[in-house]
Design a protein that fits this description.
This protein has 11 helices and 13 strands. With 340 residues, it is of the alpha/beta class.
Amino acid sequence: MSRTALVTGAAGFIGFHLARRLLADGWRVVGLDALTDYYDPALKRRRLALLEETAGYAHVTDRIEAPGVLADLMAEHAPEAVLHLAAQAGVRYSLEAPRSYLESNIAGTFELLEAARAHPPAHLLIASTSSVYGANTAMPYAETDRADHQMSFYAASKKATEAMAHSYAHLFGLPVTLFRFFTVYGPWGRPDMALFKFVAAMLEGRPIEVYNRGEMMRDFTYVDDLVEAVARLIPAVPGAQPVCEADSLSPVAPWRVVNIGNAQPVRLGDFIAAVEAALGRPAERTLLPMQPGDVPATWADVTLLDALTGPRRATPLAEGVQAFVDWYLSEYRAGGAGPR
């Protein structure tokens, strides 16, 4: 009998790739997504259509913050693993619409935790973000570092979910792993992310916007590598003993946070050069100051991830960028169509 996984945000960028990976591994997947209009819902519907073509996938369109939705799903399907990726994303948008982060990221995660309390899965896995490291300057970022100075409401909402999950792990014995993702990119990516915006602008002959005059470093993580790591973490249920000195395992709960990154920070200028090479054309740059809430650099310490999952996949940047460009040209440029 197939194991069942519940994936929230299943029509989103990472949720879509994760759901496809679980289906390929033989899981039965129940997907939940509200198909909101933060970015083009047509892209979400195209992802969803691919999932619904696959045997073993069942979809529910609803909001995670709607009272009872998650509890009903977990009561009906009794998932062994719950992978919570639904969230309001984006640092810059959190300056414009902070309430959406409160509702989705905090209230939505509360609904998830209450549902898991009533119908405990074998492992509850929740997406966080490298943005929680905020004003930290010591790098690479390690999970055992203090992370108390978030620089955007998006990051603050994610740090809040980490703390909320810890309390439920302690009080109710829920085994919880949180992922701190580092700058994920790849095919089916979000239109508000840098790679998508760069490719769209360059193909249309527009200049690209380069923040902090390009003096940025990011730990770009290819989506397939990230999904591989998450899949390997499903059986890595937090226990009573740390797995290594770098373990963030709580002393009072089956709870840990895990960085998922490439462990190789890349200058933004080098990333743009990879996009230019993949497209075979130069980029015209508009140099802009640092955006409020953003940070100049990210870099993941992956010692704990390696201890939990073994040797990591690390897709070369040029290969990952080319895969995105190939997808973009197939999805949007066939027949002269642009982004919708």
